[in-house]
């Protein structure tokens, strides 16, 4: 048995703790701005209409059963998932330089990638994470024993990107470091590099032979445009980088609990097409071994739903429409929140609310202000002042703006 003191009590996950506190609050005014899941204008989870249709198709399929998927997952799903990221006519796909393995949503994809790098990566093994980043990145990479460093990301002054700090740190980092990049809708800040800034970041990384590790959890959910939200990844792929991508379908399909995701490896273009394909074959064989020991094979239901949509032109078009509904509502809430704060002449500038993109926004509210919002106004958000835009709706946005105004003054 364990020595009595070998297993210390761990703190509760802050996000799940926040959600518990919200649920226990009996105030009719309560607002949940902590959640990382889309809510409709009635503050309810939204099953995408296209997902309902795919579900219907699946349930009426006499061939459907509950057998195991292959180790690498549902190929009809993973191949379309790669096209979604890299573009249908991407040279990397045509040259068979890509490997795609279905994962336990985005978290599992980040983990599989981390495990793969921990086992095989021969460059400088330090993993650079943005400061701040999705908190789970720290846990996932340190769990596989990779050393972690951070690069500056968010500027407190501008509430935008600290692009100079970011580039300076990447320039100083040891050659061949692993750099984790949020492809779009950066969590938690909502701040993304512009296309021009992405080109600058790519050129620094190329000069330093850094290894890009993309995490994409919001493609199509950020701007409403799948191609636009994949712009950074496509630029790096076109530049010929060897890279990996962790892809989640939780938000853009609303398939959170189904754990539909994918991990992709892209061999460098410089190796030549034949060698690129050879590298991919070897990588694929090793990923299969890792996958086998971790989960044996991935879950089937969500992958089938996504696959039905991704492989049907009409359903795909409907999905894009659903994505525009979600991203459009969120962009609209950003506009309303900013407009109300400006109308109230709340101290400070609020343009960052509409400049930022995706599910989250870094408001700039301090920890005491966040706690006051919770105790006095029943508004729940993480201590760093991050709000989930999905928690806002036409009935509570003015209440929230008025409460922000009161705690800021
Ligand atoms: N990466 C980032 C940056 C995220 O925000 C999320 C979702 N919170 C994920 C990965 C993975 O989420 P999931 O495992 O639910 O796909």
UniProtKB/TrEMBL annotation:
<dbReference type="GO" id="GO:0006532">
    <property type="term" value="P:aspartate biosynthetic process"/>
</dbReference>
<dbReference type="InterPro" id="IPR000796">
    <property type="entry name" value="Asp_trans"/>
</dbReference>
<keyword id="KW-0032">Aminotransferase</keyword>
<comment type="subunit">
    <text>Homodimer.</text>
</comment>
<feature type="domain" description="Aminotransferase class I/classII large">
    <location>
        <begin position="29"/>
        <end position="403"/>
    </location>
</feature>
<dbReference type="GO" id="GO:0004069">
    <property type="term" value="F:L-aspartate:2-oxoglutarate aminotransferase activity"/>
</dbReference>
<dbReference type="Pfam" id="PF00155">
    <property type="entry name" value="Aminotran_1_2"/>
</dbReference>
<keyword id="KW-0808">Transferase</keyword>
<dbReference type="InterPro" id="IPR015422">
    <property type="entry name" value="PyrdxlP-dep_Trfase_small"/>
</dbReference>
<comment type="similarity">
    <text>Belongs to the class-I pyridoxal-phosphate-dependent aminotransferase family.</text>
</comment>
<dbReference type="InterPro" id="IPR004839">
    <property type="entry name" value="Aminotransferase_I/II_large"/>
</dbReference>
<dbReference type="InterPro" id="IPR015424">
    <property type="entry name" value="PyrdxlP-dep_Trfase"/>
</dbReference>
<dbReference type="InterPro" id="IPR004838">
    <property type="entry name" value="NHTrfase_class1_PyrdxlP-BS"/>
</dbReference>
<dbReference type="InterPro" id="IPR015421">
    <property type="entry name" value="PyrdxlP-dep_Trfase_major"/>
</dbReference>
<dbReference type="GO" id="GO:0005829">
    <property type="term" value="C:cytosol"/>
</dbReference>
<dbReference type="GO" id="GO:0030170">
    <property type="term" value="F:pyridoxal phosphate binding"/>
</dbReference>
<protein>
    <recommendedName>
        <fullName>Aspartate aminotransferase</fullName>
        <ecNumber>2.6.1.1</ecNumber>
    </recommendedName>
</protein>
<keyword id="KW-0663">Pyridoxal phosphate</keyword>
């Amino acid at each position: 048995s364990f020595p009595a003191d070998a297993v210390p009590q761990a703190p509760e996950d802050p996000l799940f703790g926040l959600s518990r506190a919200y649920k226990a609050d009996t105030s009719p005014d309560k607002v949940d701005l902590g959640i990382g899941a889309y809510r409709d204008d009635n503050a309810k989870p939204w099953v995408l209409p296209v997902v309902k249709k795919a579900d219907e198709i699946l349930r009426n399929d006499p061939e459907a059963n509950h057998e195991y998927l292959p180790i690498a997952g549902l190929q009809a799903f993973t191949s379309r998932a790669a096209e979604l990221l890299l573009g249908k006519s991407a040279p990397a796909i045509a040259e068979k330089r890509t490997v795609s393995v279905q994962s336990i949503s985005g978290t599992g994809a980040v983990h599989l990638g981390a495990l793969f790098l921990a086992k095989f990566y021969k460059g400088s093994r330090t993993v650079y994470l943005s400061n701040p980043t999705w908190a789970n990145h720290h846990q996932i990479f340190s769990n596989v024993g990779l050393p972690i460093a951070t690069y500056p990301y968010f500027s407190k002054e501008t509430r935008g990107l600290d692009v100079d700090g970011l580039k300076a740190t990447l320039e100083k980092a040891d050659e061949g470091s692993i750099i984790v990049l949020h492809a779009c809708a950066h969590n938690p800040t909502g701040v993304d590099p512009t296309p021009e800034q992405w080109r600058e970041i790519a050129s620094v990384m190329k000069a330093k032979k850094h290894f890009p590790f993309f995490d994409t959890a919001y493609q199509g959910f950020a701007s409403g445009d799948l191609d636009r939200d994949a712009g950074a990844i496509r630029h790096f792929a076109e530049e010929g980088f060897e890279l990996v991508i962790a892809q989640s379908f939780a938000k853009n399909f609303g398939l959170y609990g189904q754990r539909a995701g994918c991990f992709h490896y892209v061999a460098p273009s410089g190796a030549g097409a034949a060698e690129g394909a050879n590298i991919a074959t070897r990588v694929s064989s090793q990923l299969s071994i890792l996958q086998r020991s971790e989960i044996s094979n991935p879950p089937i239901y969500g992958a089938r739903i996504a696959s039905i949509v991704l492989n049907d032109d009409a359903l795909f078009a409907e999905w894009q429409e659903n994505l525009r509904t979600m991203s459009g509502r969120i962009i609209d809430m950003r506009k309303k929140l900013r407009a109300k704060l400006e109308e109230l002449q709340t101290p400070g500038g609020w343009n960052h609310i509409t400049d930022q993109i995706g599910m989250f926004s870094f408001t700039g509210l301090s920890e005491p202000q966040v706690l006051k919002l919770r105790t006095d106004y029943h508004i729940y958000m993480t201590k760093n002042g991050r709000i989930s835009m999905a928690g806002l709706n036409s009935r509570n946005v003015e209440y929230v703006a008025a409460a922000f105004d009161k705690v800021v003054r």
